[in-house]
Amino acid sequence: MLSGCRRALPAALRLAVRGWAGGRGRRRVSTSWSPVGAAFDAKQQRSRLTGQSTGLFGVPELSSPEGFQEAQEKALQETEQLVQKACTTPPGPQIVMIFDQLSDALCRVADLADFVKIAHPDFAFREAAEETCRNIGTMVEKLNTNIELCQSLKQLLANKEVMDSLDPETRQVAELFMFDFEISGIHLDEEKRKRAVDLNVKILDLCNQFLIGAHLPNKIDKQILPEHIRYNFAVEGNYIQITGLHADCSDDLVREAAYKIFLYPNAEQLRCLEELLTSRNHLAQLVGYNTFAHRALQGTMARTPEKVMQFLETLSDRLFQRTLKDFEMMEGMKMKLNPQNSKLMPWDHPYYSGVLRAERYNIEPSLYCPFFSLGACMEGLNFLFNQLLGISLYAEQTEKGELWCEDVRKLAVVHENEGLLGYIYCDFYQRADKPHQDCHFTIRGGRLRKDGEYQLPVVVLMLSLPHSTRSSPTLLTPGMMENLFHEMGHAMHSMLGRTRYQHVTGTRCPTDFAEVPSILMEYFASDYRVVNQFARHFQTGQFSWFILLPLSLLVFYAVLDQLYHGEHPLKRSTTEILKETQEKFYGLPYVPNTAWQLRFSHLVGYGAKYYSYLMSRAIASMVWKQCFVRPEWRANSGKQKICLSYL
Length: 647
What we know:
Blueprint: E1 33-35, H1 36-41, H2 67-88, H3 93-119, H4 123-143, H5 147-158, H6 160-165, H7 168-183, H8 190-215, E2 218-221, E3 234-236, E4 239-242, H9 252-262, H10 267-286, H11 292-296, H12 305-337, H13 349-360, H14 374-389, E5 391-396, E6 409-415, E7 419-429, E8 439-444, E9 447-448, E10 454-455, E11 458-465, H15 478-496, H16 511-514, H17 516-525, H18 528-531, H19 551-564, H20 574-586, H21 602-605, H22 612-627, H23 639-645
C-alpha cells in the first residue's frame, strides 16, 4: 500500500507544468532569492544565526536527534487515526484520499530519515534517523498486510458504480494501493503474513547494512604502495585509505592500485549480500512469485525478468562490434602512452574513453575542467530549464538549523506562470563519512491538500564534488557534469510531476520509466548547442563540449543484477557469477581478488531493476530524436513542452 515511501531514486514523468497550480493562485517571489551561478562559485552565504532553530528542512522537531522520536510518534498517531477513518468510511473517492494521507504521513518522516541516516555528519542524527526508518518501515509492512484496511479498499474497487464515477487518476491510485497489498502477501494466512512482515523488516536491516558497507573505505599499509603514488590517497598514520576508484586519474598505477584495494573482498559484506539475496528470494516465494525478480518487475514496463533478459541480450549483441572497436582504440591509446603495460583493464575504461574523446575534439583532458566550474554548469541548467519549461532557479538564504552542513545550497524552483514549485537542497561537496554516490532523495512529495493548497515538493541532490580552492572555484570533469545534469533531471521530475496524490507524484512511478527525464538531461549535457551557452573557461571565457556513454558496462551491471535476483539457490558464488558475466557481457577480464558486487549499492534501491537505466535510455533517445535533434529546438514553439508533457 505504501511502496512509494523510502526510495532514494524512485520514479514517473509528467514533466510539463500541467497539473495543480497551487490551489489559490501564483506563489509570491521571495526577496531572499539570488542568481544561481554566483551562489555556487562564490562563498556560501551563512544561514541566519539569530532566533530559534527551525530544525532540519524546516521541521521544528528536528532541531536535535531526539526530535526524530517525536516526529515518528506524531506520524504513527496520525496513522492510527487515518486507519480507523479508512475502515469506517463508505466506498467513494474519500477512501483514496484517506489512503494517500496515510501514505503521506508516513513518507514525510520515512523519506527524510532515509536521507539523514546516510548523509548527516553528526552520528547521533544518523543513528536516530536509522531507528526511525526501521520503525516506520515496520509499520508500513504491517499496514500492507492489514486485512481490515485492505477490505475497505476492496469494497471500493468492487463497487462498479462508484469506480465508474471516479476520475482516471483516482482510479489508478486506488488500483496501485491494492497492488501494494497484493505483492506484500495480503492473501496469505495470519502466520504467513507475519512471516512476510518479519522478512521485510529483516531485508530493510540488511539493505541498510549493505549500503553502509558499500561506501566504507579500505585501508592498506602505506609501505605496500610505491612512494610516488601515495600522495593521491588519504594517509592516516601508517595506513593509506582508499575511498574510491580514482577513475579519472591519469596515472595507470594509481587507478590499478585503487581498483584492486577498494574492491578487495570483505567477508562480512559478502555475507550480508548473500543473506540479502536469499531473504528477498524467500519473501518472493512466500507471497507467490518464482523469484524476487518476478515480484520486483510487477507493475513495470518490462513486466517479467524473461523480457528484461531478452532486451539485455539483444542490446549486448548489437553493441558487440562497437564495443570491440572502442576497446581496440583504447588499447591503442594505452600502448602509445604506456607501452610497457598496454593491456586494457577494467580500471582503464573510464580514463581512456576520456582520452579518446579529447583527441577527437583536439582538447587535452586536463583542460576540460576549467570550462566547467560548478557555477557555470548551474547557470547552464538554469538557461536550459528556462528555455524548455519557463523555469528559473534561485538561491535562497536558509534559516538557523535548516541545513545539516554549511556548504549545502537551497534552490527555489520558480515557474514563469505558476510561481514557486518547490525546493532543491544541493548537497554537492565531499566530506568525511559522506557516501561517494550521486543520488536524488525525495524529502517530501507534492500533493493537493484538503485546504486547496499544494504541498510543495522538497528534494535533495547529493554529489561528491571537490571543494573550491583559493585559485579556482569547484571545477567539474565531464563525468561530474553529466552526473549533475542527470540528478537535476530527477529533481525537475519531482518539481513538475504535480499530481493530486503524493503516492504518484513526481518520481513515484515504474522504475524503468523513472530514469527517462534524468537520461534526457544527459543528452542535453553532451549537446554543443547547450554546452556552448555556458562552458566558459573560468578565467579566459573560451568554450568547449564533449560526449560520453559506456553502454556495455551498463549491460553488464543489469545482467548481473538479474542473475543475482533470479533462481535460488544461486548455482555459483556471487563473485563467480560476476566473473562469468563480466567476461561475457563487458569484454574486459575479471581481476582476481576483487569483488565489485560488494560496492554495487544499486542492488538496494534498484534490486532486479538496474536494467531501467538502459530501457529509460531507449525512451529518452526517442524523445531526443523526435523533439530536440533539429536545430530549431530552442525556438520555444511549444512542441518540446508538448512532447515532454505526454511522456
